[in-house]
Amino acid sequence: PIEGALVRLVVLLALLGAGQSIFLTPNSASVLGRVDEQYLGVSAGILATARNFGMVSGAALALALFSFFLNHYGGGLSLSDFTSADRQVFLQALRATFAGMAGLAVVGALLSLCRPR
Question: What CA–CA distances, in Å, run from 114 to 4, 30, 58?
Answer without folding.
Answer: 41, 18, 22
